[in-house]
Amino acid sequence: MPLPTIALLLTASFSLGALPLTGWAVRVFGRRDLRALGTGNVGVSAAFIHGGKLAGIAAVLAEIARGVVPVLAGRFCFPDAPAIAIALLIPLVAGRYAIARGGGVTNAVWGLLVFSPPVAVSSGIWGLLAWGLAQRWWGEGDRARLFASRCGCLCTPIWVWVWRQSMPEFLAATGLALLLAAINFSQGDDMALSKSEQLFSIDDSLDAAICGDKAAKLSQLKRAGFNVPAGFILASKEEGRGKKEEGRGKKEEGRGDEENAERLLISNSVIQNLKSKIQNRMIVRSSAAGEDGDTSSAAGQYQTIGPVFTEAELIDAINCCRQSYWTSEAVAYRRQRQLPATQMAVLIQPYIDSEFAGVMFSRNPLDGGSQIIIEALPGGAEAVVGGQITPVHLEIDFSTPESLEESLSEFENNSIIDKSLIAKLVNQAQAIEAFFHGIPQDIEWSWDGEKVWILQSRPITNLQPFWTRTIAAEVIPGAIRPLTWSINRPLTCGVWGEIFQLVLGDRAIGLNFNETATLLGSHAYFNATLLGEIFRMMGLPEQGLEFLLRGQKMGKPPLGKILPSLPGLWRLVQGERALNAKFKGDRTSVFLPALQSLEKEEGRGKKEEGRGSSEEKILMPNVQCPMPDYQYLSELLERAEQIQEWLKPITYYNILGPIGLAIRKAIFRVSDEWLDNDSAPEIASVRALQQLAQKLRQAAVSQSDETLSVAHLAQTFSETPALQAEFEKWLDIYGYLSEVGTDIAVSTWREQPEVYQKLLISMAQKAEINLVKKRKLGLTFGQKWRLDKCQERAIVKNEISEIYARLLAHLRWTFLEIEACGLAMQVFEESGDIFYLEFGEIQQWIRSGASVSFKDTIRERRDRLLADRDRPIPPVVYGNLLPNSQKRSIELATSASNIMQGIPASIGRVEGFVKICRTASTDLGENAIAVVPYTDAGWAPLLLGATAIIAEVGGQLSHGAIIAREYKIPAVMNISEATTRLRDGQKVRVDGYLGTVELLE
User: Which of 36, 37, 717, 801 has minimal Cβ neighbours within 10 Å of its Cβ?
Assistant: First the structure.
């Protein structure tokens, strides 16, 4: 073995290692000197971090070549002594570290890969395994990464021995491994440094966990086109003192200013970099984790320092800002809000010379009302938020376009701020709230004489949770009495809780599903904040909150985010697929026997032989109390409790059934027009009444040739026992229905036969009765197959709705019997009083057996309900208070446009005259356009006589929409406050395709 050749190769390897290839690559492509940046380590990671992607790639290629060349030279010159090829990597790495100031890991890895791929791959796998174990112990971070790198180096000799079985090669690999490990321990880590001292630009997408919520939100706004000053973020340091120890589950207590608020070192390169990016004066702002977050603002907890002029002032400002994270007040705030203690990122921006600055709220921060609040002062915004000077206070009402214009006009001469600037601020506030999916915002702004700059935007944290009428307005519309709510709320919240727990699994721990719904102003609202959080957990898109708050469509969920919920969603799908069979089993074994037992208890006969459940007799409930004593009351209470137990499973079916049908329709692209809804109670009842009306008309015509008057038809009906019997039979079958199927306080059809007898005569008076025949759709084979996948579920959904409505009707009649006893015992004053009590109060009264009087309570609650019926009910409530808006009547002349936009529900275009229908018993008259507050199965007979339908709430799947499509009646849903904005006899044009109502006078 020629020693001169070996010496020459060793010298050449050292010289090759000494060449600053990576430094040259960064100088050429990044125009920077790595020796003066970061830790001074002129390595590949530093090239990427400080020189950019192109410089990093060039450095990688150069170091790969540098590591491969000595190995190939050694194998070529000494093919019989492979250990020399490994040994040549030792002087290469030494020269790389001693002169070129690099670590040499990239050289060694690629050199070993060329020398023996199995050795290199095995070492790499071992390093990855060590990384995984280290992450479980220390958590994700630089400590685990460095540990894995050192393990990978030190295990290389072992794998050389395993694969090569050569002692010289083992010794050479051992020397190389020890050298690499020693260098690794002694060198700085640019990757770790980059996490704490890397400058992120506010123009980039930022991670709130690294850069803080304030910077992340400003980044979103700037990238969306809002006027946000340029800025750079010095990320939070990972080694923050109060941090949760990874892998051990123990949180360190905040240690006080002495231990936590030490002065942090900031490299000169960072300061020089900042000064090169922001030439003029700067301002240093805090951007801590949890600051300006969704549930905590940390307002005033941390320091903002500016203006900053020199590098020394900048260093002091950054340190002062970071130290404010550990003041006793800030630590106490985080503990009280249960926020994790990490460290603080710092946001550095140009200092704005303001003519005016201040804060504004996109909604009234007291009650979430439709007022934008602006507070401003000449100069910077700090004076406003500081609270030491009283600023200009403006309130701009934007509830209608007219009120907004009126508010702006008031400030024409009464404000030190120009009207045009106020208008700009209003537009910005509304745009930013819309950008953040309808969440009210607390916004800091500045005006430099030309532009409005957005300095900060965060949620108004006290306006939470958000409550929405979306969905709730259809589930249980109108003003709700206490008894109805005390029964419906546990049922609804319980079932939705079961569904969400099924999907989320262990992630549902900590969610309070009892807060899914509430009653505000006697109207039902769903918790949009809770549902939005659930949507995020399920991986649904951000538009989920806009769907709840603004009724907008939801986008497609990103696959990556929905993956964790796939097992739960699969469980839900399995439950949905088994719903038909499970319901049919429960229908036979539970629900039908339950209904039969209720009829037997109430003494109203049994199910007739050979008839389906749709022909069960529903006779008049007992309105007299046969024995007004507490023993009988206890029996009635037990019956009411048992009905509620039966309602729990049918409520589950009643919620999951329509959801499953909607999903099936979307998957198989089945139109509503294809579905046969003949079995739906609201459809079947109307058709049966139509058939009876036709018989009445024929009987009246046969008796007289005169024009059929209401009096003549009424006389014919009273003189024809067969028609009366058929009408009674119709009431027996469909008497359980009511205007609001979910509200037991609303009378059933069976309790007001005179109303429907009048409707029967009105139908019979028409020259032609539109009996809708079976439709012939002419579907293709593929369309029929798709329809079959949905039709059975539609039929089952109707059966579910029928049983649900029947059980609620029996529950109502049971309470009417309890009320009859209460009237006899002078507990109540008049009919309907019981529905102003909660179920728990009724239970306590009956079980105590004490003499009580609820008269004052009932009177107070009745007055409140009447007031709530007349007040405007907003579609969204922010916080737990209804906005304190004054009662207002909306005149047609105040509308800036004569067109009202709603949701198209049934195509067709009709001109006609309005009839305001606040109840289903309203006399609609001839050729009227029905304007209703809501629609339910009980509204079907009334809506059938309308030429068009306008509803205040509802969507394309509401009862009114189904009826309208079935009978080809144009319909528009979701016209806010239609019953007050329109008036009887007013001429309008309804376009069910565009979803518009045009005022023609």
Answer: 36
For 639, list phi and psi in degrees, rounded to 5: -65, -45
HSE-up of residue 627 (Cα within 13 Å, Cβ side) = 8
Distance CA 171, CA 178 (A): 11
Q: How far apart are the C-alpha atoms of 564 and 921, rounded to whole Å?
A: 51
pLDDT band at residue 241, thresholds of 50, 70 and 90?
very low
What gap in Å lies between CA 74 and CA 115, rounded to an integer?
10
Q: Biggest alpha carbon distance in the chain?
A: 134
For residue 783, CA distances in Å to 670, 679, 778, 780 come to: 8, 21, 9, 5
For the chain, give the mean pLDDT.
81
Binning pLDDT at 50, 70 and 90, where does residue 889 land?
very low
* DSSP notation for 148-161: HHHHHHHTHHHHHH
CA 551 remoteness from chain centre: 12
Which helix (H) or strand (E) covers residue 453, if one does? strand 452-459
Distance CA 21, CA 927 (A): 89
Range in 312-321, 382-391, 707-716 with the lowest mean pLDDT: 382-391
Q: How confident is the model at residue 887 (pLDDT cuts 50, 70, 90)?
A: very low
Q: At what angle do helices 839-848 and 781-824 cross, to 10 degrees?
A: 40
At residue 308, φ and ψ (nearest 5 deg) are -115, 135
**Do you find a cis peptide bond into 621, omega within 30 degrees of 0?**
no
Q: How confident is the model at residue 605 (pLDDT cuts 50, 70, 90)?
A: very low
* CA separation for the pair 150, 138 (Å, rounded): 16
Return the HEC string of 927-955.
CEEEEECCCCHHHHHHHHCCCEEEECCCC
Which of 298-307, 633-642, 879-888, 982-991 is predicted with the least confidence, judged by mean pLDDT?
879-888
251 touches 309 (CB < 8 A) = no
Residue 727: both structure tokens together: 């009408």
- CA proximity to 380, closest of 409, 420, 351, 406: 351
Q: Are 193 and 51 in contact (CB under 8 A)?
A: no
Asked if residues 104 and 137 have their Cβ atoms less than 8 Å apart, the reply is: no
In this prediction the pTM is 0.67
User: Of all residues in the chain, what percent carry a pLDDT higher than 70?
Assistant: 81
331's tokens: 């630590």
Kindly calculate the radius of gyration of the chain based on its CA atoms and give it in whole angstroms: 38
pLDDT in tens, 353-399: 888 888 888 988 878 888 898 888 776 555 444 444 556 778 888 88
Give the residue from 540, 545, 526 showing the smallest Cα distance to 877: 526
pLDDT digits (tens, 9 = 90+) for 782-831: 888 988 888 888 899 999 999 999 999 999 999 999 999 999 888 999 99
Q: b/e per residue, 885-896, with b = 16+ CB within 10 A?
A: beeeeeeeeeee
Assign 3-state DSSP to the chain and report helix, strand, coil percentages, each to 5: 55, 10, 35
| CA atoms lying within 13 Å on the CB side of residue 954 | 31
> Which tokens hold the place of 662?
């909607």
Q: Are 280 and 298 in contact (CB under 8 A)?
A: no
Buried-state track 363-394, b at ≥16 Cβ within 10 A, e below 16: bbbbbbbbbbbbbbbebbbebbbeeeeebbeb
